[in-house]
Amino acid sequence: xxxxxxxxxxxxxxxxxxxxxxxxxxxxxxxxxxxxxxxxxxxxxxxxxxxxxxxxxxxxxxxxxxxxxxxxxxxxxxxxxxxxxxxxxxxxxxxxxxxxxxxxxxxxxxxxxxxxxxxxxxxxxxxxxxxxxxxxxxxxxxxxxxxxxxxxxxxxxxxxxxxxxxxxxxxxxxxxxxxxxxxxxxxxxxxxxxxxxxxxxxxxxxxxxxxxxxxxxxxxxxxxxxxxxxxxxxxxxxxxxxxxxxxxxxxxxxxxxxxxxxxxxxxxxxxxxxxxxxxxxxxxxxxxxxxxxxxxxxxxxxxxxxxxxxxxxxxxxxxxxxxxxxxxxxxxxxxxxxxxxxxxxxxxxxxxxxxxxxxxxxxxxxxxxxxxxxxxxxxxxxxxxxxxxxxxxxxxxxxxxxxxxx
Length: 406
Fold this sequence. Notes:
- 51% of the residues are buried.
- The strands form four sheets. The protein has a six-stranded parallel β-sheet.
- It is α/β, with parallel strands linked by helices.
- It is 33% helix and 16% strand.
- It has 13 helices and 17 strands.
- The chain is elongated.
- It has helices at 34-48, 75-83, 96-103, 127-138, 172-186, 205-211, 225-231, 246-259, 305-316, 337-348, 364-372, 387-394, 400-403; strands at residues 14-18, 25-26, 29-30, 52-56, 87-89, 110-112, 143-146, 168-170, 192-196, 217-220, 262-264, 268-272, 281-285, 299-303, 320-324, 358-361, 382-383.
């Protein structure tokens, strides 16, 4: 994979960069600028070297049509602040405005194109349609830099097809993500602890299969834990349950025992009367989840304090930790304690590169959770920008956006 190691080679030349600026928005305001901040170093290095930088990205799922609620216009000023220089905005992707503004770019200037997914060619399953759109994007520049790790698992025009049409390079963000994920997959320092949360087991099937072959300890939290408990015969009240995955989960429990992986489940749960921030709640042991003070059909919304302390200890004793998925409904303060305990332990375990320890927050909701709790990138060895891409990498899958760079 050819990396962008010498931005100065692009002085005076137009370079189109695929960034991941798909940030959460509420009422037109960015609620978590993490991906914007992570994208800034590559763009800054190119601009400072005198390149004419064209940035392309997507926001949300507008389904191939212009939808103002998914416009990247609000991202441009946030990107300018992160990069430390002005960012112009084109109101289309490959239309007249984008072509004119790209042609008029001066050395060191940056242009952000409108949402790529406003064009159906970006995500089309028809290779010819995708390639046509990629060709229009390629006409804007002389070289391509892939720096959106969160999309490298997608075979899309701006991720895959354009790299077949221009000289291509992996940006600093993609290169760093690949290096970290490769260590997790092939060469983790031990003990290696994986903490998996989130709502559904079905979202993590592939990565559990893979990590049962690699990790020393697999810790389960989040909504998915109730399918594991049910597979062991526990009643789980009104908690989230994927009944169609029970047999699969029993297989994981058996496999963990066979290969010597310690698969750790909660010993207590915070149960609530309803899915609400102010719901009455109480902690209960896993053998009493139907009869808590919160109600006979209560639902689990967080791991309990005993479990949180145990999980924090496992993280503290590890040399390598990969964490993907919150332990509970962290958006509600009453049910954020489990996630907070894991985040604090992971931060404390981050001893820096010289210790040989590696602590990784695996993107997606995990990254949003640690930022909402007041942590920054500096508190961990690495915060991934690509939840889905990270998981597919750790499954051992071939990711189109990386394959095309080789």
